[in-house]
Murein tetrapeptide carboxypeptidase (Thiomonas delicata), 316 residues
Amino acid sequence: MTDSPPTQTPPTSRGLLRLLSPSGAVPDAQRIARAQAHLQALGFRVELDPQALGRVQRFAGTDTQRVQAVHRAARSKAHVVMATRGGYGLSRILPRLDYALLHEAVTQRRQFWVGHSDFTALQLAMLAQTGAVTHSGPMAAFDFGSDKLDDITVDSFLDAHDGSQEAVGFACSDAPRGLDARGVLWGGNLSLVASLVGTPYLPRVRGVLFLEDVTEHPYCIERMLIQLLQTGVLQRQKAVVLGAFTDYKLTPHDAGFDLNSAVAWLRGQLKPHGVPLITGLPFGHVQTKLTLPHGARCRLVRDGSEAFLVFAHAHG
Protein backbone atom coordinates (compact mmCIF):
# COMPACT_ATOMS: atom_id res chain seq x y z
CA MET A 1 0.00 0.00 0.00
CA THR A 2 1.42 3.39 -0.97
CA ASP A 3 0.96 6.65 0.84
CA SER A 4 -1.26 9.19 -0.87
CA PRO A 5 0.48 12.44 -1.86
CA PRO A 6 -0.14 15.28 0.57
CA THR A 7 -3.10 17.45 -0.33
CA GLN A 8 -2.22 21.08 -0.87
CA THR A 9 -4.56 23.58 0.73
CA PRO A 10 -5.75 26.07 -1.87
CA PRO A 11 -5.09 29.72 -1.07
CA THR A 12 -7.81 31.75 0.56
CA SER A 13 -10.14 33.25 -2.01
CA ARG A 14 -9.56 36.99 -1.84
CA GLY A 15 -11.79 38.08 -4.70
CA LEU A 16 -11.23 39.76 -8.02
CA LEU A 17 -8.19 42.01 -8.53
CA ARG A 18 -8.09 44.28 -11.57
CA LEU A 19 -4.86 45.66 -13.01
CA LEU A 20 -4.91 48.96 -14.87
CA SER A 21 -2.32 51.38 -16.24
CA PRO A 22 -3.48 54.95 -15.60
CA SER A 23 -0.04 56.50 -16.12
CA GLY A 24 3.05 55.33 -17.99
CA ALA A 25 3.32 52.53 -20.52
CA VAL A 26 4.46 49.15 -19.19
CA PRO A 27 7.98 48.56 -20.57
CA ASP A 28 8.12 44.83 -19.73
CA ALA A 29 4.97 42.75 -20.15
CA GLN A 30 6.74 39.75 -18.62
CA ARG A 31 6.67 41.45 -15.24
CA ILE A 32 2.90 41.80 -15.48
CA ALA A 33 2.60 38.10 -16.33
CA ARG A 34 4.70 37.25 -13.26
CA ALA A 35 2.62 39.61 -11.13
CA GLN A 36 -0.57 37.88 -12.28
CA ALA A 37 0.88 34.50 -11.31
CA HIS A 38 2.04 35.72 -7.89
CA LEU A 39 -1.28 37.40 -7.13
CA GLN A 40 -3.21 34.32 -8.19
CA ALA A 41 -1.05 32.22 -5.87
CA LEU A 42 -2.08 34.58 -3.05
CA GLY A 43 -5.73 33.81 -3.73
CA PHE A 44 -6.81 36.60 -6.10
CA ARG A 45 -8.61 36.16 -9.38
CA VAL A 46 -6.76 38.58 -11.65
CA GLU A 47 -8.10 40.44 -14.66
CA LEU A 48 -6.14 42.80 -16.86
CA ASP A 49 -7.77 45.95 -18.20
CA PRO A 50 -7.77 45.81 -22.03
CA GLN A 51 -5.71 49.02 -22.18
CA ALA A 52 -3.19 47.96 -19.50
CA LEU A 53 -0.41 47.05 -21.95
CA GLY A 54 -1.13 49.81 -24.45
CA ARG A 55 1.27 52.56 -25.47
CA VAL A 56 0.92 56.05 -26.90
CA GLN A 57 4.26 57.84 -26.65
CA ARG A 58 5.34 57.34 -23.01
CA PHE A 59 1.80 56.75 -21.81
CA ALA A 60 -0.33 53.62 -21.50
CA GLY A 61 -2.84 55.06 -23.97
CA THR A 62 -4.25 58.43 -24.86
CA ASP A 63 -5.63 60.63 -22.11
CA THR A 64 -9.15 59.53 -23.07
CA GLN A 65 -8.22 55.85 -23.05
CA ARG A 66 -6.65 56.14 -19.60
CA VAL A 67 -9.68 58.03 -18.23
CA GLN A 68 -11.85 55.22 -19.58
CA ALA A 69 -9.62 52.62 -17.92
CA VAL A 70 -10.04 54.31 -14.53
CA HIS A 71 -13.80 54.50 -15.01
CA ARG A 72 -13.98 50.86 -16.16
CA ALA A 73 -12.20 49.80 -13.00
CA ALA A 74 -14.59 51.83 -10.84
CA ARG A 75 -17.60 50.25 -12.58
CA SER A 76 -16.17 46.73 -12.48
CA LYS A 77 -16.90 44.01 -9.96
CA ALA A 78 -13.27 44.06 -8.80
CA HIS A 79 -12.61 43.96 -5.07
CA VAL A 80 -9.09 45.35 -5.61
CA VAL A 81 -7.90 47.85 -8.22
CA MET A 82 -4.11 47.91 -8.53
CA ALA A 83 -1.92 50.05 -10.78
CA THR A 84 0.56 48.17 -12.93
CA ARG A 85 3.14 50.95 -12.50
CA GLY A 86 3.63 54.68 -12.06
CA GLY A 87 5.68 56.86 -14.38
CA TYR A 88 3.78 59.95 -15.43
CA GLY A 89 0.36 60.79 -16.79
CA LEU A 90 -2.32 60.96 -14.10
CA SER A 91 -1.91 64.70 -13.54
CA ARG A 92 -3.08 65.29 -17.13
CA ILE A 93 -6.41 63.54 -16.61
CA LEU A 94 -7.44 64.59 -13.08
CA PRO A 95 -9.97 67.19 -14.33
CA ARG A 96 -11.65 64.56 -16.53
CA LEU A 97 -12.31 61.93 -13.88
CA ASP A 98 -15.78 61.17 -12.53
CA TYR A 99 -15.23 61.63 -8.81
CA ALA A 100 -18.80 60.72 -7.93
CA LEU A 101 -18.24 57.36 -9.61
CA LEU A 102 -14.91 56.85 -7.82
CA HIS A 103 -16.43 57.82 -4.49
CA GLU A 104 -19.26 55.33 -4.94
CA ALA A 105 -16.84 52.55 -5.91
CA VAL A 106 -14.61 53.07 -2.86
CA THR A 107 -17.08 54.02 -0.15
CA GLN A 108 -20.19 52.03 -1.09
CA ARG A 109 -18.80 49.00 -2.92
CA ARG A 110 -15.61 49.01 -0.82
CA GLN A 111 -13.18 48.74 -3.70
CA PHE A 112 -9.57 48.66 -2.50
CA TRP A 113 -7.50 50.97 -4.76
CA VAL A 114 -3.74 50.61 -4.31
CA GLY A 115 -0.51 51.94 -5.79
CA HIS A 116 2.23 54.51 -5.30
CA SER A 117 4.50 56.82 -7.32
CA ASP A 118 2.39 58.61 -9.98
CA PHE A 119 -0.69 56.93 -8.47
CA THR A 120 -0.28 59.51 -5.69
CA ALA A 121 -1.94 62.10 -7.95
CA LEU A 122 -5.13 60.04 -8.15
CA GLN A 123 -5.12 59.34 -4.42
CA LEU A 124 -4.69 63.00 -3.50
CA ALA A 125 -7.41 64.05 -5.93
CA MET A 126 -9.83 61.42 -4.62
CA LEU A 127 -9.17 62.50 -1.04
CA ALA A 128 -9.53 66.19 -1.88
CA GLN A 129 -12.65 65.76 -3.98
CA THR A 130 -14.47 63.00 -2.08
CA GLY A 131 -12.69 62.11 1.16
CA ALA A 132 -12.31 58.53 -0.08
CA VAL A 133 -9.72 56.27 1.56
CA THR A 134 -7.40 54.53 -0.90
CA HIS A 135 -4.18 52.63 -0.18
CA SER A 136 -0.57 53.60 -0.75
CA GLY A 137 1.23 50.36 -1.40
CA PRO A 138 2.65 47.94 -3.95
CA MET A 139 2.04 47.80 -7.68
CA ALA A 140 2.11 44.96 -10.17
CA ALA A 141 5.27 45.51 -12.22
CA PHE A 142 7.84 46.53 -9.60
CA ASP A 143 6.54 44.68 -6.55
CA PHE A 144 4.58 41.63 -7.65
CA GLY A 145 6.44 41.30 -10.95
CA SER A 146 9.71 40.37 -9.26
CA ASP A 147 11.00 36.80 -9.33
CA LYS A 148 10.90 36.69 -5.53
CA LEU A 149 8.40 38.66 -3.49
CA ASP A 150 9.30 40.63 -0.38
CA ASP A 151 7.61 39.04 2.64
CA ILE A 152 6.96 42.29 4.51
CA THR A 153 5.47 43.92 1.41
CA VAL A 154 3.16 40.97 0.80
CA ASP A 155 2.13 40.56 4.44
CA SER A 156 1.34 44.26 4.87
CA PHE A 157 -0.66 44.32 1.63
CA LEU A 158 -2.69 41.26 2.61
CA ASP A 159 -3.27 42.52 6.16
CA ALA A 160 -4.52 45.86 4.82
CA HIS A 161 -6.72 44.13 2.25
CA ASP A 162 -8.15 41.64 4.75
CA GLY A 163 -8.88 44.40 7.26
CA SER A 164 -6.61 42.99 9.95
CA GLN A 165 -3.93 45.71 9.87
CA GLU A 166 -4.43 47.71 13.05
CA ALA A 167 -0.92 49.18 13.26
CA VAL A 168 2.48 49.19 11.56
CA GLY A 169 5.81 49.81 13.26
CA PHE A 170 9.26 50.79 12.04
CA ALA A 171 12.66 51.52 13.52
CA CYS A 172 13.03 55.23 14.18
CA SER A 173 15.86 56.91 16.06
CA ASP A 174 14.84 60.54 15.53
CA ALA A 175 11.24 60.56 16.78
CA PRO A 176 10.89 62.81 19.84
CA ARG A 177 10.08 61.08 23.10
CA GLY A 178 6.43 61.37 23.95
CA LEU A 179 5.48 61.63 20.27
CA ASP A 180 1.70 61.31 19.94
CA ALA A 181 0.36 62.84 16.72
CA ARG A 182 -3.19 62.23 15.53
CA GLY A 183 -4.90 63.07 12.27
CA VAL A 184 -5.47 61.96 8.71
CA LEU A 185 -2.66 59.95 7.11
CA TRP A 186 -1.91 61.32 3.66
CA GLY A 187 0.84 62.10 1.16
CA GLY A 188 2.91 59.78 -1.00
CA ASN A 189 5.29 60.86 -3.72
CA LEU A 190 6.80 64.26 -2.90
CA SER A 191 6.96 65.44 -6.52
CA LEU A 192 3.24 64.80 -6.96
CA VAL A 193 2.29 66.44 -3.65
CA ALA A 194 4.30 69.55 -4.54
CA SER A 195 2.94 69.65 -8.10
CA LEU A 196 -0.67 69.83 -6.88
CA VAL A 197 -0.16 72.85 -4.60
CA GLY A 198 -2.65 75.53 -5.63
CA THR A 199 -4.95 73.08 -7.41
CA PRO A 200 -8.28 71.62 -6.27
CA TYR A 201 -6.61 68.22 -6.10
CA LEU A 202 -4.43 68.80 -3.03
CA PRO A 203 -6.31 67.96 0.19
CA ARG A 204 -6.38 70.60 2.92
CA VAL A 205 -5.53 68.13 5.62
CA ARG A 206 -4.08 68.62 9.08
CA GLY A 207 -2.67 65.22 9.89
CA VAL A 208 0.33 62.97 9.39
CA LEU A 209 2.02 63.65 6.05
CA PHE A 210 4.27 60.90 4.66
CA LEU A 211 6.61 61.49 1.72
CA GLU A 212 9.00 59.61 -0.56
CA ASP A 213 10.63 60.06 -3.97
CA VAL A 214 13.03 58.55 -6.47
CA THR A 215 15.85 59.92 -8.70
CA GLU A 216 15.57 63.37 -7.15
CA HIS A 217 18.79 65.02 -5.98
CA PRO A 218 18.71 66.19 -2.32
CA TYR A 219 18.62 69.85 -3.41
CA CYS A 220 15.52 69.10 -5.51
CA ILE A 221 13.97 67.29 -2.55
CA GLU A 222 14.74 70.29 -0.34
CA ARG A 223 13.32 72.70 -2.92
CA MET A 224 10.02 70.81 -3.06
CA LEU A 225 9.87 70.66 0.74
CA ILE A 226 10.49 74.42 0.82
CA GLN A 227 7.53 74.87 -1.53
CA LEU A 228 5.34 72.91 0.91
CA LEU A 229 6.79 74.93 3.78
CA GLN A 230 6.32 78.34 2.18
CA THR A 231 2.74 77.55 1.17
CA GLY A 232 1.94 76.52 4.74
CA VAL A 233 1.28 72.85 4.03
CA LEU A 234 3.95 71.49 6.38
CA GLN A 235 3.14 73.83 9.26
CA ARG A 236 -0.46 72.55 9.28
CA GLN A 237 0.61 68.98 9.93
CA LYS A 238 0.73 67.13 13.24
CA ALA A 239 3.83 65.30 12.00
CA VAL A 240 5.85 64.76 8.81
CA VAL A 241 7.23 61.26 8.15
CA LEU A 242 9.85 60.58 5.50
CA GLY A 243 10.12 57.29 3.68
CA ALA A 244 12.77 56.29 1.14
CA PHE A 245 14.47 58.78 -1.17
CA THR A 246 16.47 56.68 -3.60
CA ASP A 247 18.49 56.46 -6.81
CA TYR A 248 20.11 59.89 -6.85
CA LYS A 249 23.77 60.80 -7.36
CA LEU A 250 25.80 63.35 -5.41
CA THR A 251 28.51 65.34 -7.16
CA PRO A 252 31.75 67.03 -6.03
CA HIS A 253 29.90 70.35 -6.26
CA ASP A 254 27.65 69.28 -3.38
CA ALA A 255 30.68 69.59 -1.07
CA GLY A 256 29.04 67.69 1.78
CA PHE A 257 25.45 68.70 1.11
CA ASP A 258 23.35 65.54 1.12
CA LEU A 259 19.91 64.27 2.09
CA ASN A 260 20.78 64.40 5.78
CA SER A 261 21.64 68.09 5.35
CA ALA A 262 18.26 68.80 3.77
CA VAL A 263 16.40 66.87 6.48
CA ALA A 264 18.30 68.65 9.27
CA TRP A 265 17.55 72.05 7.73
CA LEU A 266 13.86 71.28 7.37
CA ARG A 267 13.64 69.92 10.90
CA GLY A 268 14.99 73.25 12.13
CA GLN A 269 12.34 75.13 10.15
CA LEU A 270 9.52 73.01 11.56
CA LYS A 271 10.65 73.01 15.18
CA PRO A 272 9.21 76.47 16.03
CA HIS A 273 5.85 75.25 14.72
CA GLY A 274 5.91 72.15 16.90
CA VAL A 275 5.81 69.78 13.92
CA PRO A 276 8.06 66.72 14.41
CA LEU A 277 9.93 65.42 11.38
CA ILE A 278 10.89 61.75 11.55
CA THR A 279 12.51 59.34 9.13
CA GLY A 280 12.65 55.62 8.48
CA LEU A 281 9.18 54.78 7.13
CA PRO A 282 9.46 51.65 4.92
CA PHE A 283 7.74 53.14 1.93
CA GLY A 284 8.77 54.38 -1.49
CA HIS A 285 10.47 53.05 -4.59
CA VAL A 286 12.04 50.25 -2.59
CA GLN A 287 11.51 46.51 -2.37
CA THR A 288 10.16 46.54 1.19
CA LYS A 289 7.12 48.77 1.57
CA LEU A 290 4.13 48.98 3.85
CA THR A 291 0.57 49.34 2.64
CA LEU A 292 -0.93 52.45 4.22
CA PRO A 293 -4.57 53.60 4.28
CA HIS A 294 -4.32 56.96 2.52
CA GLY A 295 -6.93 59.33 3.92
CA ALA A 296 -7.69 57.33 7.08
CA ARG A 297 -7.33 58.67 10.59
CA CYS A 298 -4.25 57.45 12.42
CA ARG A 299 -2.18 57.93 15.53
CA LEU A 300 1.63 58.21 15.32
CA VAL A 301 3.42 57.28 18.54
CA ARG A 302 6.91 56.37 19.67
CA ASP A 303 7.57 53.29 21.78
CA GLY A 304 11.24 52.77 22.61
CA SER A 305 13.29 52.75 19.42
CA GLU A 306 10.26 52.31 17.17
CA ALA A 307 7.49 54.49 15.82
CA PHE A 308 4.00 53.10 15.25
CA LEU A 309 1.18 54.17 12.99
CA VAL A 310 -2.02 53.02 14.65
CA PHE A 311 -5.20 53.04 12.60
CA ALA A 312 -8.63 53.86 13.98
CA HIS A 313 -10.28 50.86 12.34
CA ALA A 314 -9.76 48.34 9.59
CA HIS A 315 -9.89 49.41 5.94
CA GLY A 316 -10.46 46.20 4.07
